[in-house]
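User: Round two. Same drill as before: sequence, then structure, for each protein.

Assistant: Same drill it is. First protein:
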Amino acid sequence: MKKKFLCTILCISMAASMLVGCGAKSDSTDSGSGTAEEGTAADQEASQDTGAETPADSEADSGNSYEQYAGTTIHVAAIETAYGSEMWQEVAEAFTAETGVEVELTTDKNLEDVIGPSMQGGEYPDFIHLATGREAGLTEQFIKGNMISEVTDVLSMTIPGETVVVSDKIAKGFTDTSLTNPYGDGKTYLAPMFYSPCGLFYNAGLLKEKGWEVPTTWDEMWELGDKAKEEDIYLFTYPTAGYFDTFLYALMYSAGGPEFFDKATHYEEGIWETPEATACFDIIAKLATYTNPITPAQANDQDFTQNQQLVLDNKAIFMPNGTWIVGEMAEAPRADGFEWGMMALPAVKSGEDCYSYTWFEQSWIPAGAENQDAAKLFMSFLYSDTACEIFAKSGAIQPIVDIADKLEGDNVMFYSIYDNGVKPAMGNFAAFNAIPGVEVRTVFLEPVNSLVSGGITEDDWIKDVISASDQMRENLK
């Protein structure tokens, strides 16, 4: 795993050096207006002769004609997750049928290792679907290196095959977070993709069998943990420490609301010594004592499903996860009477708000991509009804207005979590310039493994967080 990470970093470093001479971003033609009024055929011909027309203008004026992309082939690279790779092939074919733009598709579970060598040589995919938060940290490295193209203009592009623009389709709030606007400049660089309400997943059948109530506060959670311990069942597990990102974000909202979350994720001086921060640290440290002790040994990208299996086997009750867990463990054995359940994080105190983090993946266009206009066209197509229906068949849900009305099965329960008083949490830690040995994951998330195993104390962790946070604040972008 360390070798993979070092290889990725070397790839990024070499790629970055190749871009220095021409700036952080390429000067691609703007393809994002997509709202121009229809003109006459003569107007179109005249504008083509003078070169004054933008790709988006031509697209709108010609009634969704894409002659300007004739002969174009874009390279699309997408991470293969529990949703599978077939959906990407089907979407690519639908896009080609609509626009005529050919797609060369690369999908892999270890996408970073596949596209890294070509990027080392200066050849970039035109479009990449790869979320932040992965162990290799490839997307984060591109963000820190200012090597991602701005895609704000995509929001105003007319979706191929439809008459509406992208911003009319994306649900409110999804393009206003640090996950899509990492530099805090009001501009969008990453497009929101498959989203999932995140929370604590469990076997609802087990709780029914035992007559245990779903806890609504952390005090009730500890009480349940004590009951379960008497029957040799642990209260908690987690796939990998990386899954504590959505857990920690929701916990910060629960402890201090949006204001505390914003200050904490921007590393405000003294923020980690406040009562709100102390509540977060205390809860996670205490939860570590209720965690199945085998968890840290399996908390890696190869064995994480074994930790998830602990819930299916009634060896642990709760785990932080997202709605993809159903598909990911669809073929796994399970205890008799198993039934998926999902809950928001318990309130810190009785009567206070409960939060469920809304996690979503991201797609982006490398600044060094050759066909950026066509890549933006592809990005806009991903919010079409056609693409959304294809993705949904595999369980990948796009953040589209009223999408929950089209769902069925367990997804109805998962995506309606905000309908019953639970509040959504969004956002993540602000981007900062590269600091050797300091990453969000290594500072805030991975220490949970050591808390569970007893390798560090809560006080050790807090001291490390304060020290690293000071460096992050000094290096904010």
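Second protein:
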Amino acid sequence: MGPVRGRVIRAATLDDLDALLTLNSVVQQWHADHYPDVFRTDPDPALMRRFFAEQIADETCHVLICEDLSGYVFARRHAGKETPYGWKLPEMHVEHIAVLPNRQREGIGSALLSAAEAIARSAGCARLTLDTWAANSEAQRMFEASGLSPLRHHYAKALR
């Protein structure tokens, strides 16, 4: 992929699995700290390695990593489906984005989103989407500064 906003971002390979697990642990821990009823604090590393290996191999997925291993983004392309009430809108959905805590606020997250957007555009996607948890106000500010805007609200009620 090459430089994006001054950052070298490339497709992740199986050689990057250790780095992806390290980076994912940042976002996983944040989620577990804020939503312990939903997220595990200690996911099985072997299962996580298998998960990322499968995503790297999936042609609908794009796992991108900074060359200096400071951050990654994982996005999945959805073809979209026309229905009686809506148009077929292919989109690229960002499933994960993570930046090492000591490297945040350096533009790495924005560069990763720009790289995902470039891939989405080249794949003919109508939009780039992502979702974030309500408590993640720092990420929300970065997403909005990167040109994303809220599309809908997702509500939940705990039943146990």
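The first strand starts at residue 2 and ends at 4.

User: Perfect.
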